[in-house]
Amino acid sequence: MKKNWWKESVVYQIYPKSFNDSNGDGIGDINGIIEKLDYLKELGVNVLWISPMLESPQDDNGYDISDYRRIYKDYGTMDDYEKLLEEAHRREIKVLMDLVVNHTSDEHQWFLESKKSKDNPYRDYYIWKNPVNGKEPNNWGGCFGGSAWEYDDETQMYYLHLFSKKQPDLNWENEKVRQEVYDMMKFWCDKGIDGFRMDVISMISKDQSFPDGKVGSGLYGDFGPYCVHGPRVHEFLKEMNREVLSKYDIMTVGETSGVTIEEAQKYAGENSGELNMVFQFEHVEDASQHAEFGKWTTARYDFKAFKKTMIKWQEQLQGKAWNSLFLGNHDQPRSVSRFGNDNPAYREISAKMLATCLHMMQGTPYVYQGEELGMTNVYFDKLEDYRDIESIQYYTELTDSGLMNPDYMMKCLMLRSRDNARTPMQWNDSEQAGFTKGQPWIKVNPNYKEINAKSQLADPDSIFHYYQKLIRIRKEKDIVVYGEFEPLYREDDQIFAYIRRLGEERLLTVCNFSEHPAEMEIPEEFTKARCLISNLERKSFEGKIVLKPYEAFVLYK
């Protein structure tokens, strides 16, 4: 297997709006990130993926870009961004930019031109269609609810938006659009960024016949089969690689919802000529596959299905493509609330257990801001506390149509809303958790007095220091990065355990995912092995043992 710096890295995702506010306006900013670089250096991460920081009306918190070459005014200036790059690089931390090129904002200059007239030079930068029988061109629904088509009075045609109506989809069939995107990417690479996380990159190619989608329990048809991993997506990414990516030593990760093993190998195979790695979401979408309204369910995740999925991706990409390892991000609920146990009795132990399980696998681990502190879901119980466009639009659509009872939908939001991940970072126990001197754009989780960075930095047994140790082990031991993966206890409904092998070295990771004790036998080859890390200070690691609730450890020999 080829060695690469991005395989050996640990990435930390920053959601800039909620990370650290340096000027008291209630919104995180670039200078706020610079202030915390020493904290990130101490944690041990060496790559930052920062969610979009470009000019935007903020309809979808920056994933609606109105100018690809300007920094969003509330976050700072281009000078601030250049200083961030310089200060991060001085600490040997690389910076990934969030690349959002499936769609722009409807306030982008291209779109303002595009909608002026049918013969405007920018018209086919976007996807315009005539009405069919006086209605939408097809029955597709958007990712945030409602139709995926918006009527424009000016030219009496519809434009496609797979997300919000303020996020019109770019027409990648148009070579000019592709060249504009590549020029913009070169602009940022020449500034010294270290790579791209590519937003919904698997959606850039659409089936040009635009057929109706299958209607499930909701009101609209599914665009998935015609827009996700579309007919030309690999051709476009190979072209992007030739034109831009191959010319720089950068890291690329594609967000590819619904990706299969076979597709992932095309996107991120060792010699695919496309991307370094992809995000697959099967392990965080398991529960929603079976729920009537997708992610809007109160069902707890199914551990055995989760484990099966995690093992599948480890085994089947091994030697063929590279995994991204994550349990949380800006679109997912907090991982300890979802996969662990955020009850105070188990929060710390289960947060450490989850981290152990993830960080000892093969792939590049991602830490979402606050995960290293065991930050939890916020569980807002009033709709007016939510800020997320997806949560608010689905609440309205599903309750207004009578498909869901308002009380039940609020419970779904408490468990599944993206805002769970977007409450301000909890720096200390002062007012507003030390995030801002002003009024934050979204409420702080009230548990910040117990859960915050300041108290964890002072406590050698904290989740923060546990993460620091896991990251250090990965840097010191090649086996964690490059070792082969072999699962144990495949069918067990509490234990997730696996061996990694590299030459003569062996690594055993054992995790109990439940609040009940679990029995297991330590494999004989690990007699007299050394314990590298353990979340419950276990002393004996031989023969038959009983794991305590949420116990985890790693043995090395």
SSE map:
Layout lengths: L10 E4 L1 H4 L10 H6 L1 H7 L3 E4 L3 E2 L11 E5 L6 H13 L3 E6 L9 H6 L13 E2 L19 E4 L4 E4 L14 H17 L3 E4 L25 H4 L5 H11 L7 E5 L5 H8 L8 E3 L2 H9 L12 H15 L6 E2 L9 H4 L8 H13 L4 E5 L20 H12 L5 H11 L36 H5 L5 H14 L1 H5 L1 E5 L6 E8 L2 E8 L5 E4 L8 E5 L9 E4 L4 E5 L1
Parallel strand pairs: 1-2, 1-13, 2-5, 5-9, 9-10, 10-11, 12-13
Antiparallel strand pairs: 3-4, 6-8, 7-8, 14-15, 15-16, 16-20, 17-19, 18-20
Question: What does this protein look like?
Answer:
InterPro entries: GH, GH13_cat_dom, Glyco_hydro_b, Malt_amylase-like_C, O16G_dom_2. Keywords: Hydrolase. It comes from Blautia acetigignens. Pfam families: Alpha-amylase, Malt_amylase_C. With 557 residues, the chain is of the alpha/beta class. It has helices spanning 16-19, 30-35, 37-43, 78-90, 109-114, 175-191, 224-227, 233-243, 261-268, 282-290, 303-317, 335-338, 347-359, 389-400, 406-416, 453-457, 463-476, 478-482, and strands at 11-14, 47-50, 54-55, 67-71, 94-99, 128-129, 149-152, 157-160, 195-198, 251-255, 277-279, 324-325, 364-368, 484-488, 495-502, 505-512, 518-521, 530-534, 544-547, 552-556. The strands form 5 sheets. The protein has an 8-stranded parallel beta sheet with strand order 11-10-9-5-2-1-13-12. It has a 5-stranded antiparallel beta sheet with strand order 14-15-16-20-18. β7 and β8 form a beta hairpin. The longest helix has 17 residues, at 175-191. The radius of gyration is 23 Å and the shape is globular.
